[in-house]
Amino acid sequence: MMADTCKVLMIFPRFNANSFWNYKEACDLAGARYPAAPLGLITVAALLPENWEIRLVNRNTEQLDHADFAWADIVMTGGMLPQRNDALHIIEMCRACDKPVVIGGPDVTSSPSLYSAANFQVLGEAEEIMIDFIAAWRRGDRQGVFEAPMGKTDVTKSPLPRFDLLKLDQYL
Ligand code: B12
């Protein structure tokens, strides 16, 4: 339908503060900003067409700027339960600047109704269903729900995550 390119801003929501799992003191000692990298988002990044441009901002390790939103055609976000507050905030920010937003990951999978403000929901493991999202986006859809079939994804067919999108020195 159109030249197939898309600028994707991936935003990893901030975890709630003061959790044991943030390992704050260990990070301080090691000069890192957060223990673990956003493995889900960089896996999704590897499932997108090669000519789509991707920018990753991890709200636990770096600043999100208005310029990032201005650059993007679409925002992808999501994570687990302790990231819910910030994920909902990110969706609000997207709506405020009129950027379509896709939410995925374990928390929306458990509680989709809480995330009804997002344009798209990707429920469950993304490996087999991102292709349906991509087809919908290309034909001009601006909302939809994509749900992984019951059962487990064959992770031997999962692509290598886009580790190149990470700034590795930020992590433990
Ligand atoms: C490793 C792990 C941890 C580690 C590391 C977490 C980290 N920061 O990376 C540790 C031990 C620290 C941890 C801790 C906790 N965890 Co944990 N953890 C996991 C585990 C086992 C694997 C996560 C993972 O990396 N998977 C691999 C990646 C590739 O998968 P993924 O992130 O799910 O991404 C896939 C899809 O979800 C989807 N996807 C993900 N994001 C997005 C975004 C978009 C836009 C799209 C389209 C798709 C998409 O695409 C990916 C490919 O299919 C999961 C269970 C599981 N088997 O998945 C629980 C799980 C995520 N944890 C969970 C919980 C509850 C916790 C704790 C709150 C437990 C507690 N009570 O303290 C803490 C909180 C941590 C914190 N920082 O505050 C729950 C979350 C439930 C929910 N509703 O969100 C899970 C699902 C376990 C469960 N079944 O209950 N955890």
Question: Would you write up a description of this structure?
Answer:
- The protein has 172 residues and is of the alpha/beta class.
- The chain has a single domain (7-164), classed as Rossmann fold (3-Layer(aba) Sandwich).
- Helices cover 28% and strands 16% of the residues.
- The chain is built from six helices and six strands, in the order E-H-H-E-H-E-H-E-H-E-H-E.
- The protein has helices at 24-30, 39-46, 66-71, 84-96, 106-110, 130-138; strands at 7-12, 53-58, 74-77, 101-104, 120-123, 144-147.
- The chain has a six-stranded parallel beta sheet, with helices on both faces.
- It is globular and about 50 Å long.
- The N and C termini lie far apart (44 Å).
- It binds cobalamin.
- Residues 15, 19, 21-22, 36, 39-41, 43-44, 76-78, 80-82, 102, 104-107, 110, 122, 125-127 line the site of cobalamin.
- GO terms for molecular function: cobalamin binding; iron-sulfur cluster binding; metal ion binding.
- Keywords: Iron, Iron-sulfur, Metal-binding, S-adenosyl-L-methionine.
- Residues 32-130 form the B12-binding domain.
